Amino acid sequence: MEILFDWNIKEKPENFIVKEVGEHPLNEKGKYHLYLLIKRNMNTKEITAPYRLWYAGLKDKNALTFQYVSSDKYLGELVKERIDKETFFIMQYLGRIKRRVKIGYLKGNKFSVKIKDIDIEPKDWFINYYDLQRIEKNLRKGKEIITNLSLNSERKKLRWLENFYVEAYLSYLWNKSLELYLNKFFDGYYIKEKLFRFFIPYTNFENMFNLIQKFWPILGYKTKFNELEKSIYEKILKDEGLDFELLNKKLYLLKIKGDYRKTFLKVDDLKINFDRIEFFLPKGAYATMYLKHIYKKAKD
Predict the structure, then answer these.
(1) pTM of the model
(2) In a 3-state reduction of DSSP, which class is residue 243?
């Protein structure tokens, strides 16, 4: 069975509210300045770049978001700018801190999503796939970088943007390999958005916890694979016109180490209040992927 994911989640920024959860203890002797950044219809970097701010994670553009940022200098008690009727940001001063806010320095995010006119089936878990915002526009460029790389190339780290493209492609391969793995254990259905399909098993958290691996490997020259993981990746890569061993050699040249990502996640603080669903997810997880898991259809 295939379900078309046609839920326009971010039709209005207030439909998708994100609040970062992090620990940044105030200290009057600290040399850095902590701000709460509230933004609407703006990318995080649109604000952090001109103001030279440090941040823990990028937040959605088409949303109302709250996150912590730090500055090396005091910018005032309140900084605000309205770009147009629909677009603005506000920075509220919180105090001094000893350490800058940095990428990854957060526990996760709280989400509040409007569900009016949407038929959902809430669950307390989901498969931890990477979602379209990471892979859709980037995987082709990432694959090109890999396929065009000669094995005689000098070993060097990619520039940030090139590395981002390659990791997006590796994220796509992670999704495809995990899907093949899950198919060995569960029946399920697919949910489709644009050209991408995601396999969602008919199961529950307890079954997954007892039956399948808690982590699934991301390709990289330092990643260790068991026989099953390797065989699944070999099949996926063959479909992509790539060879497992040659790809690992290229990832070594690009200094991409690989990693392990949680196969599935438990959803915390799940609540439904009238026409909104609220929940907490750890860093690196996609709220839109959880929403795909609970979506049934738009109400008539």
Answers:
(1) 0.93
(2) coil
